[in-house]
Amino acid sequence: MLNMAAGLARLGDLANHPVVSTLAQAFADAGHDLAIVGGPVRDALLGRHTHDLDFTTDARPDDILRIVTPVSSAQWDIGRAFGTIGARIRGEQVEITTYRADSYDGATRKPVVAFGDDLEGDLTRRDFTVNAMALRVPAVTLVDPTGGVEDLVAGTLRTPIDPRMSFGDDPLRMLRAARFSAQLGFDVEENTRQAIEDLTGSLSIISAERIQAELSRTLRETDPVRGIRVMVDTGLADEFLPELGAMRLEVDEHHHHKDVYEHSLTVLQQAIELETARNPGAEPDVALRIAALLHDIGKPRTRKLEPGGAVTFHHHDVVGSRMAKKRLEKLKYDSATISSVATLIELHLRFFGYAEGAWSDSAVRRYVRDAGDELDRLHILTRADVTTRNLRKARRLAAAYDDIEQRIAVLREQEEIDSIRPDIDGNRIQEILGIRPGPDVGKAYRFLLELRLDEGPLGEDEAEKRLRAWWAEQS
Description:
Layout: H1 4-15, H2 18-29, E1 34-37, H3 39-46, E2 53-57, H4 61-68, E3 74-76, E4 84-89, E5 92-98, E6 103-104, E7 111-112, H5 119-124, E8 134-136, E9 141-143, H6 148-154, E10 156-157, H7 163-169, H8 172-184, E11 187-188, H9 190-199, H10 208-220, H11 224-234, H12 237-240, H13 242-246, H14 260-278, H15 286-294, H16 299-302, E12 304-305, E13 311-312, H17 316-330, H18 335-347, H19 350-356, H20 361-371, H21 375-384, H22 391-414, H23 426-433, H24 439-455, H25 460-474
Parallel strand pairs: 2-5, 10-11
Antiparallel strand pairs: 1-2, 1-8, 3-4, 4-5, 6-7, 8-9, 12-13
Helix pairs in contact: 1-3, 7-9, 8-10, 8-11, 14-15, 14-21, 15-18, 17-18, 19-22, 20-22, 24-25
């Protein structure tokens, strides 16, 4: 429940922030209005930490630059065409934007920039009422023309104007509804939700890069599951990630009480909990979270009904890895993220063979080798993939994974398990066998690597002996 008295007190603290007071005085001395706008005001009322300071003013860009230059250590005008001037003041980066009264051309989401003359008009063009509040400074006056405070109290996301007009102007706002739902824990107001359902097709004018950015921002939140549900339930996800909705009706053979979609959301939430526990204070791991969300997307395509009513999803790990790679490429994710996600999905079932019977050291080495740099993420994903309600089974699987992690730790102490290489390199292979660079060197290298994986470090003398014997057999 929002405590308004405390919230208003925090607004006073925000107005007294050194950066705010410096700018407020500078603009007042120049005869211009200034107001803190959007997220900082919302977060102050909610008692959340404010990361960025955004301001709006009646001053035009040239005047803004003139006013901030004496009180800032750096300035940049890359957003001048849109009315935005950036500056670094007392070590903090801020943006000051001229009141806007934009319109959109209907074919793209690029606005036809028009500067406005009043704060209230600027606020009504923003995405949601909870982001359409401003704090005038230095007067410390809250300006809320669209009922943002009431929606904060109700925990509601609502557009300042008719949602069809708002989303028609900028369809990306529909994805922001999902992100803010995840960030704030708010519900999307019914009329706003209905407008999203009716206008999902308008996402087609939004670039893949912008959609990807909003999806990633949603996944970075503390509760992205809430945002994902908004995307799927409204049909938004069908426009850029249709594999999510396709999982809703598929039964998971390991978890009969949940369909694959619900199972995947549970895995995502559990992965986040494990990620936070293992890496406290670290930035959210988007690649891990994507892998958790998509780890079973291959199931609908591999679903098969067996005699007796059983359902199988053979090779859904390999199929899902390929599907995820293609989808992430379409969303313009970077190659490192795509590679990480594809590897994690392909390997996410590997551990369950260990749970059925302890692996040899050779199998553990191969597990580490195949996971490579993704091993820590794979630990988290595999543990998170256990969603059974059978507590006995859950404890058995957890104990098995405790054991494999301990085995890996022991092998790390005994040998270089994270960068497994043969005891003899390619140059030495050529010297020993008297051969030139070519396919035979690669075959010999792979032979020695398999020995290393099977038996651990052999030492150069023993490796040479085995190599010569192998080469004699080849000859």
